[in-house]
Amino acid sequence: MKQIIINKNDAGQRLNKFIEKTFPTIPSSLMYKSIRTKNIKINRKRCTPDQKLCEGDLLDIWLKDEFFVQPPHRYEFTKASDHLDVVFEDENILIANKPQGLIVHPDENYELDTLIYRIQKYLHQKGEYDPEKENSFTPALVNRIDRNTSGLVIAAKNSVSLRILNAKMKSREIHKKYLCVVSGKPVPAEATLEGYLEKNEQQNRVYIEKKRSESGKTIRTHYRVIDTINNFSLVEIDLLTGRTHQIRAHMASIGHPLLGDGKYGTNRVNRAAGYYKQALCSYKLTFEFTSDAEELNYLNGMSFEVENVPFLNDFYSGKIK
User: Fold this and answer.
1) DSSP code, position 182
2) With contact defined as beta carbons under 8 Å apart, do 26 and 32 qualify?
3) What whole-number distance in Å separates Cα of residue 138 and Cα of residue 133?
4) DSSP code of 246?
5) Residues 6+ apart with CB under 8 A from 76
6) Are 141 and 185 in contact (CB under 8 A)?
7) In DSSP terms, which residues pair with 219 in a beta bridge?
8) What is the average per-residue pLDDT within 192-202?
9) Assuming Cys at both sites, which of 39, 166, 245, 253 could form a disulfide with 62, CB separation 3.0 to 4.6 Å?
């Protein structure tokens, strides 16, 4: 038998989702049967799988102890680097400047030095995150960027913030802008590109088409040329849709690939300039809420920028040529 008091970060979840995350050793069929037969109760009363949990609820699970045996704790975030560039932090969120070359989540190669593990380690060392006291919540990222793109990423420190920010990101009430260096000078100097993106999973590559296909995703990319030096342009990008490799592929499709982009760019140009990773940074983040953000309303109107965009000095000094 297991008895659990629902804490603040568990509140708001459906009962079945909470059990699946907290006790993965309990088969789904057994969980649903136990709810029907009242071997799982909330506040000693009959419950339903979709019942929302509230802070302070008492959850009783009358099952054999073998279903609650957990493997030895191995907190893999402890193996991550201590380096973390924190741009902003309060009791609800953390905004980090991710360096180029760092992945945001563990991948199929199971790299342990990831942005989310660095953040979890940082919060653990500060005493703000203790996995021993959490049933199902871990600090999580709200947005993500590619390994070789640098810039701002938001992490939620509690479940309420994660729920709100995920909804705001989906409704595009969190605005992100990018800086990049491209070959040539786009004409006109400012425009909104439209097209359809096809993803090839085997190649890990996308293709931009002008006509819609059955699997094509609509994309819209707004660009603005800031300056041009040595036939390279510094461009600000506003993603009006968010698709895989959208900026890189869309700019390449109009003949202005990103400097350093080995997948969509020109290797000869990249080698000559000494750039082997794309010159792309998610440099600005603005909270523009048009609807109630509950506990996070205070963020509305706040804006954050990367102080040192990696390739700006090279661009303005004329080193890129």
Assistant:
1) E
2) no
3) 11
4) H
5) 106, 112, 117
6) no
7) 195
8) 92
9) 39
Give the contacts of 3 (CB within 8 A, at least 6 positions apart).
Answer: 58, 59, 60, 61
What would the pLDDT profile of 26-58 be if each residue is shown by its tens digit? 999 999 999 999 999 999 999 999 999 999 999
The residues, ordered by sequence, that sit 6+ positions from 108 with a Cβ below 8 Å of its Cβ are none
**Residue 125, C-beta contacts closer than 8 angstroms, at least 6 positions apart:** none
283-321 tens-digit pLDDT: 999 999 999 999 999 999 999 999 999 999 999 999 999
Helix ranges (H only) for 73-177 are 115-126, 159-170
Give ∠ CA 278-284-285 in degrees, rounded to 5: 125
Q: What is the mean pLDDT of residues 99-106?
A: 94
Q: What's the token pair of residue 69? A: 């045996």
State the Cα–Cα distance between residues 224 and 231, nearest whole angstrom: 16
CA 151/CA 302 separation, integer angstroms: 17
Contact residues for 200 (Cβ-Cβ < 8 A; gap 6+) = 206, 207
Between strands 280-287 and 150-156, the pairing is parallel
Burial tier of 259 (Cβ tally within 10 Å: 0-12, 13-18, 19+): buried
What are the two backbone dihedrals, phi and then psi, of residue 77, each rounded to the nearest 5 degrees?
A: -65, -20
Please say whether the beta carbons of 288 and 300 come within 8 A.
Answer: yes
The Cα–Cα gap between 259 and 85 comes to: 25
Q: Rounded distance, CA 149 to CA 271, Å?
A: 18
Residue 249: name the closest of 307, 213, 208, 196 by CA: 208
The pLDDT confidence band at residue 70, using thresholds 50, 70 and 90, is: low
Indicate the residue type of 172: R
Residues with catalytic roles: 146
Q: How far is CA 314 from CA 12, 183, 229, 261, 274, in A?
A: 49, 14, 11, 16, 11
Q: Helix (H, G, I), strand (E, B), or coil: what is residue 244?
A: coil
Is residue 120 classed as helix, strand or coil in its secondary structure? Answer: helix
Closest CA to 225 of 194, 181, 259: 181
| Residue 18 burial (10 A CB sphere; 0-12, 13-18, 19+) | buried
